Amino acid sequence: MPRQKASKGKAPQVSQRAPKLTKENFEKELQDLASKAKEETWQKWARDQIWVLIKAGGLLTFAAVYSNVSQLALSPVFGSIPASIWHQSGVIIACFLGWSLNLFLANNLPYKTVKLLPVLAAYIPIMQLALSKYSGLLGALYGPLIIESVTFFPLLMLSVSSTAIILDDMDMSPGRFKWITDALPGILSYTFYKVVENFSRVNLQEMLVKYSFLNRLNLELGFIGLYSIIAPSNLLIFTIPPLLHTVVLNPHVTLPWTTYSLNATLNQNGWSLLDRQESLTGYLSVIENKNVGYRVMRCDHSLLGGEWQLSATKTSTKEPIYSVFVMLEAVRLVEVSLRVPDEEASALVVGLGIGTTPAALIAHGINTTIVEIDPIVYRFASEYFDLPSNHTAVISDAVSYASLSVASGKKFDYIVHDVFTGGAEPIDLFTFEFLHDLHSLLKPNGVIAINYAGDFILPSTRIVLHTILSIFPTCRIYREFVAPSSSMVDVDGRDFTNMVIFCTNAPDGTITFRKPDTRDYLESHARRKFLVPEHEVLRDEFALQEGDGEVLSRNNTQRFEIWHHKSALGHWAVMRTVLPADIWENW
Q: Pfam families this protein is in (predicted)?
């Protein structure tokens, strides 16, 4: 081909030449390649470390959330407070053993520890169901510890062991991170676990309320699936039998056939389940004994109230089965200098239960406001216990409501304080600050009735009573039933009782009850028998002792924890005499 000639008047185009191969250029090229290789190596290292942290964080997150699920699964049988007594100690031991024995477990178990997690999670509901049948024998103090020792604690130990093995893959060489020590991964892992555990404890119950298809057993089923996803293996075949047993036969899973099976079991003793649902305050259910003819509402391992369904005559209000709720209605009987007619009076009821007391106040024509934190409790009281609709309902935290009401200047003629949860009093509602707000909400001639369930041999009862008296100096205290003998208290080791404290703002400094008339009884036999309080407690019976401390304040409630444990254990024993054990266990 002819060679192309350059055009006249234009300089010929010269192709770009490669840089000269000099020593300087060669060294620069090597430096560029080294820098690029170093950058790629660092990025790969970072991706590897992030993936390790994700896997370890996932295992710890599952274990932390399951910690609270395990507590929820035990609370209907033992109560939320007894179920928590040994829990954190068991968590610390399981975490220590899992971290320190991770190499031993890895070298001596036939399978990787992480692959055992789905199998163990699948058998936890079966073991909880089986061992709960022996709750009466195991007791509320050690029963939860024994059950968690063969269910959640092994799961936690293997989870921590698997986490330690995963973190061994992290590059923590002193050359790169001189500040990291051998102990730091364990410390950070435990810190992460506790943060997630505390966060989920606050939010888990609300999640159960928000999503009605969930309950505590359904959550355990969900964890079986999650563990199966993160640790797939041939071992998953062993999860099928326990999974089928739980889905088909475990009455605590909320499915149509499990509910039918539960009712078939309850019917053998004359009981039937009318409704059940997770709530903000615990597991709620409404059950009825058709043989005897009464209906009750339970929350975990306590009763919120009950009433007779059969009556010889038609009455304006149903008969309550517990006398303490009738005693609270005596708030209307306290003599004051300027008595307000019922039709002109106003009442505040803190804590609803099944609505026995507010229903009676409403029946008397009193303008009644009910403050209840749990919307499911309110719904059950309305649907199954005929709570009258002509009242003001406030679904809110009572502490916040009282504070806002004081600021707005609200006043009431009567206040009924009736709260109980988890086997002990909700301590925030017995502090000096909250009770002082109630004092501010009471009219000058107003009367307050406070229901307190506690053990007279514990300092907590003495402190709460003295806190009440420091705000309401004019009070009288009554037990629900006659006090047991000192020998009986010595044998039982407790003196647990319901009591009602009647106090007034009246200036005369005395508490007396007027004689009830026919209208006060609301055509109720129970009110004829229990409306007027009888078993008074004298002040020297609960005198403060050395070491009790001062009144209960909002910033000093931690000291009540150990007393709460003892009180809740006493309450558990009392509840086992109120309803048969199998009713509590077949929740």
A: Spermine_synth
Are 152 and 89 in contact by the 8 Å Cβ rule? The answer is no
- Look up residue 26 and give its two tokens: 């060669």
CB atoms within 10 A of CB 427: 18
Distance, CA of 559 to CA of 537 (rounded, Å): 25
User: pLDDT grade, residue 174 (50/70/90)?
Assistant: low
Q: Measured between alpha carbons, how far is residue 375 from residues 295, 371, 561 in Å?
A: 20, 10, 27
Closest CA to 112 of 42, 182, 164, 63: 164
Q: Render pLDDT for 250-307 as a digit per residue (tens, 0 to 9).
A: 999 988 899 999 999 899 889 999 999 999 899 999 999 988 889 999 999 999 999 9
State the DSSP string of 100-164.
HTHHHHHHHSSS-HHHHHHHHHHHHHHHHHHHHTTHHHHHHHHHHHHHHHTTHHHHHHHHHHHHH
CA 301 to chain centre: 12
Residues written for the chain: 587
- Report CA torsion sign: 565, 567, 572, 573: positive
* Distance from C-alpha of 216 to C-alpha of 222, rounded to nearest angstrom: 10
With H, G, I as helix, E, B as strand and everything else as coil, classify residue 546.
coil
pLDDT at 44: 72
Q: Are 269 and 359 in contact (CB under 8 A)?
A: no
Tokens matching residue 113: 């520890």
Strands 282-289, 271-279: pairing is: antiparallel
User: Strand 392-395 and strand 367-372: pairing?
Assistant: parallel
Map residue 457 onto helix, strand or coil.
Answer: coil
Three-state DSSP class for 322? coil
Q: In this structure, are residues 437 and 415 in contact, taking their beta carbons and an 8 Å threshold?
A: no
Here the tokens at position 184 are 């730091």
Long-range contacts of 510-518 (CB under 8 A, 24+ apart): 510/474, 511/334, 511/474, 511/475, 511/476, 512/334, 512/335, 513/330, 513/333, 513/334, 513/335, 514/333, 514/334, 514/335, 516/333
Structural domain including 576 reads 296-585
pTM (global) more than 0.90: no
Give the CB-side neighbour count of residue 152, counting CA atoms within 13 A: 30
Give per-residue pLDDT as tens, 450-498.
999 888 888 989 999 999 999 998 999 999 989 888 888 888 888 888 8
Clarify whether residues 226 and 357 are in a common domain.
Answer: no
In a shared domain, residues 466 and 350: yes
Of 249, 280, 309, the residue that ends a domain is 249
In a domain, 290, yes or no: no
Domains held by the chain: number: 2
CA distance 61 to 53: 12
Are residues 300 and 242 both part of a single domain? no
